[in-house]
Specification:
The structure holds two protein chains of two kinds.
Chain A lengths: L8 E5 L4 E6 L7 E8 L6 E6 L4 E2 L4 E4 L5 E6 L8 E9 L12 E6 L1
Parallel strand pairs in A: 1-9
Antiparallel strand pairs in A: 2-7, 3-4, 3-8, 5-6, 6-7, 8-9
Chain B lengths: L3 E4 L2 E4 L5 E7 L6 E7 L6 E7 L5 E2 L8 E7 L2 E6 L8 E8 L7 E3 L3 E5 L1
Parallel strand pairs in B: 2-11
Antiparallel strand pairs in B: 1-3, 3-8, 4-5, 4-9, 5-6, 7-8, 9-10, 9-11
Classes of the chains: A mainly beta, B mainly beta.
């Protein structure tokens, strides 16, 4: 079972920042927070992951609370191509453990 | 980045026939591959974990005799849906882990199976 809770849907105006929340209150100390997204009828795409420090890459920023019970994915300047289902996943990094997908958040970027 | 391909991208077959789906890691060796299934408007559901050279591990409720998985090399895993029925119609997605790239999983583009 997925160990995360996300809002089912969100809207964001094009060009504005999209902030996608995720609750993972039962996360253990050696579990990472991963974010993937799935554009309609495609395979999931890796976005970012982190353990406890905030992370940033060319796609997004990941903010993890100090107690690690929640996190926020930030797309700084959303475009129409960012419309997708975003999945927040808690997973052990060590070992070949599979990703267990929850229901995710359907982000709609509106012109 | 690492690339995973799937073939075919879509397939239509008659009920009772078998369909084989290939998953290939194009520029890295994948010791572990995963197979997922996704029904319309639902999330991805893990079907099985496939390790090169050994038998696949199936999730509870997935029939191993119906969904045959073979992982004969470090770059190829196949999923065969045997005696397919309309309820097997779904989007099948594979992913692969490259040890040298840590445990990031790379996903294929998916295969849409329609059983008439």
């Amino acid at each position: 079972d997925a160990k995360t809770t996300q809002p089912p849907s969100m809207d964001c105006a094009e060009g504005r920042a999209a902030n996608l929340p995720c609750n993972h209150s039962t996360i253990s100390g050696n579990e990472y927070v991963y974010w993937y997204r799935q554009i309609h009828s495609q395979g999931p795409q890796y976005i970012i992951h982190g353990l406890k420090n905030n992370e940033t890459n060319e796609m997004a920023s990941l903010i993890i609370t100090e107690d690690r019970k929640s996190s926020t994915l930030i797309l700084p300047h959303a475009t129409l191509r960012d419309t997708a289902v975003y999945y927040c996943i808690v997973r052990l990094s060590a070992g070949n453990t599979p990703l267990v997908f929850g229901k995710g958040t359907r982000l709609s970027v509106i012109a | 980045g690492a690339v995973v391909s799937q073939h075919p991208s879509w397939v239509i077959c008659k009920s009772g026939t078998s369909v084989k789906i290939e998953c290939r890691s194009l520029d890295f060796q994948a010791t572990t591959m995963f197979w997922y299934r996704q029904f319309p408007k639902q999330s991805l559901m893990l079907m099985a974990t496939s390790n090169e050279g050994s038998k696949a591990t199936y999730e509870q409720g997935v029939e191993k005799d119906k969904f045959l998985i073979n992982h004969a090399s470090l770059t190829l895993s196949t999923l065969t849906v045997t005696s397919a029925h309309p309820e097997d119609s779904s989007f099948y997605i594979c992913s692969a882990t490259a040890d040298r790239r840590g445990n990031e999983q790379f996903f294929g583009p998916g295969t849409r199976l329609t059983v008439l």
